[in-house]
Amino acid sequence: MAFSSWLDPYDAEPFIFFSKSHLWAMACIAIGLLLTYLFRNELRATSDRTRRNIRIYLALFMFGCEIVLQAWYIYGGVWSLRTSLPLELCSISLLLSGIVLLTRSRLLHSALLFAGIAGALMAIVTPNLGYAYPHFRFIQFFTAHACIILALLYMTWVEQLRPTWRSVVASMVFVNVAAFVVYIMDVILDANYMFLRHKPDTASVLDLLGPYPVYILGEEILAMVMFSLMYGLFFAIPERVKNRMKRGRGTTF
């Protein structure tokens, strides 16, 4: 593929859901996250300086993902206040997750953990994307969304910022505050960031949640269910099982 075609915002093959390239992208992301989990203890055992450098480099890379996207919009002549500002939930999560890496803020991590992971995961599975591999936008899209999940789980698994039930509430508050601010911007700009004024043109999970504005209420319910399940399945239940096993070993003779 010629360099100009790789960046062309108009002359590109359309994205196809669950195509070979889409499946490969999801598989690569899953493998990367699995390796991070498997080597979490080794990463945790490294020096403070090494972990700090990992956080800094990952944060800079994440900021770079948004910078190159904005540069591509300008290069392709498609930059617009109505479509190009980083006001989508995943764009907001990308930038704030980078800040979490740099600051180790427990409050921000708590607010972002479930909202950022759930939003990025849904975007990866049902992308609002018009470009197939190996177009720049395809690569940037999946890389940026993978980084959101990686950063938040790195801070959880390696830096040990453990969530509580309050994290579910914090994530719900974050989503609603972000939606309120973005909706105001949507009205001012006549835009549709976070799909708060109508559904995306491509297929998405919103198609299952009813017409506008019913699907926004459906998103609220879906978010609460997803955040609660994520906390229960990946944190609360494993922690309870671990504690019971410890108590059981402590009573053996």
From TrEMBL:
Keyword Ligase among UniProt keywords: no
Ranges in coiled-coil conformation: none
Key words, A-Z: Membrane, Transmembrane, Transmembrane helix
TM ranges: 15-35, 56-75, 81-102, 111-132, 138-157, 169-195, 215-237
InterPro entries reported in the protein's UniProt record: CHP02206_TP0381
Pfam families listed in its UniProt record: TMEM164
NCBIfam families, per the entry: intg_mem_TP0381 (TIGR02206)
Stated name of the protein: Integral membrane protein (TIGR02206 family)
Organism in which the protein naturally occurs: Paenibacillus tundrae
